[in-house]
Design a protein that fits this description.
It contains 13 helices and 12 strands. The chain has about 375 residues and is α/β, with parallel strands linked by helices.
């Protein structure tokens, strides 16, 4: 790679496959990378075919070491180098990379870009106590010793301050507008459907999908007997597809997914309490999807309207919203103005450039 001298060189490092997008973490990383105007290079790990946990761990450690040597070759002769560590996988990988990076690249600037609060996720997922302990230690270390650290919302900022007495910057989740193009799929799309977006292996998504299948879907089909339920994302167990009106589309093309979002009867996100902000909900707001969700689904998102997206608390409220088609009535007014607001608010290029100005990186 022929980097120009005397320019900022930015290396984005993630421990998952991000260059094709697909899931929330990958979309955030890819949007951030695409928003960078300076010399840039993405380092990622494609571990999608390695299912064994131990082998996956070894594979990632080997890749982390390889990253160090690859970056060392590139940055040898340049003045200002910035390394962004994407914190959307187990924080131990970020910790190991940071320790090695600080040893080999002493003059580089390190930014820890957290997507969620790792400690809270481990607690919620009821992880092994030793893993929880390590994760908290690693997270505190990164927030304290990286040159800059970020969170995605004011709520997460307050939580980090309470946990670690650190004061990170806010770098909100954003989207690459170019990735919101719409194209009708070549596969058959049901005439009437509602949908959920998100990989089943991510616990907050699993909770939400199970909630729909076990509790909400029976309510909905009593109102709309012929409506289909579409699930997108990876990891969904096929044995759960017992009903012919439940469709599973695994990792479909981004522009096809955008079409499904735009044309769905409604999007249902019964999210439980979790950190971070939901990129799928931000993208759906920009695309004009009719969103029905809980208060946890919009956590950290700066809402322009009290009525869009539609927020429910109890299942009887959801039943009323769907039966009376409230989602259609509320979205029929001012939808274009609202879409434009979110498009401007969550354009990652603006978000990231404003962050660089705050930290005076260009000086």
């Amino acid at each position: 790679m022929n980097f120009q001298k005397n320019k900022i060189n930015i290396f984005v490092v993630c421990f998952y496959f991000a260059s094709k997008g697909g899931n929330g973490a990958a979309e955030v990383t890819l949007s951030l990378f695409n928003s960078i105007n300076d010399n840039k290079k993405l380092f990622e790990i494609n571990d999608t075919k390695i299912k064994n946990i131990f082998l996956n761990f070894i594979f990632k450690i080997k890749n982390i070491i390889a990253f160090i040597f690859k970056i060392k070759k590139i940055i040898r002769n340049y003045n200002k180098n910035v390394i962004i560590i994407e914190g959307a996988s187990w924080i131990g990988y970020s910790f190991i990379f940071f320790l090695l990076g600080k040893f080999f690249f002493k003059k580089s600037t390190f930014i820890y870009h957290s997507h969620n609060i790792e400690y809270d996720i481990r607690i919620k997922n009821k992880s092994n106590k030793f893993i929880i302990f390590l994760s908290k230690y690693f997270e505190k270390f990164l927030f304290r010793y990286c040159n800059y650290s970020t969170v995605v919302s004011l709520n997460d900022k307050k939580r980090i301050k309470k946990l670690y007495k650190e004061n990170p910057y806010i770098l909100e989740n954003g989207v690459d507008i170019k990735r919101l193009k719409i194209q009708k799929p070549i596969f058959e799309v049901p005439k009437k459907y509602f949908m959920f977006i998100g990989s089943y292996w991510f616990n907050p998504n699993k909770e939400a999908i199970d909630e729909i299948l076990d509790k909400l879907y029976p309510i909905i089909i009593k109102i709309y007997p012929n409506i289909n339920f579409i699930i997108t994302g990876s990891g969904f167990p096929l044995e759960k597809l017992k009903n012919k009106n439940i469709k599973y589309f695994k990792n479909i093309k981004k522009n096809n997914l955008n079409f499904l979002i735009k044309n769905a009867e409604f999007l249902l996100f019964p999210m439980k309490k979790a950190t971070g902000t939901k990129i799928k909900i931000i993208e759906s707001l920009i695309l004009g999807g009719r969103i029905i969700t809980t208060i946890h689904g919009v956590k950290g998102i700066n809402l322009i309207s009290e009525s869009i997206p539609i927020i429910y608390r109890e299942n009887y409220e959801l039943k009323k919203i769907i039966k009376n088609k409230i989602y259609k009535k509320k979205y029929s007014k001012n939808s274009k103005r609202i879409m434009l607001y979110y498009k401007k608010k969550y354009y990652m290029k603006f978000i990231f450039n404003n962050f660089l100005k705050k930290i005076n990186l260009n000086e």
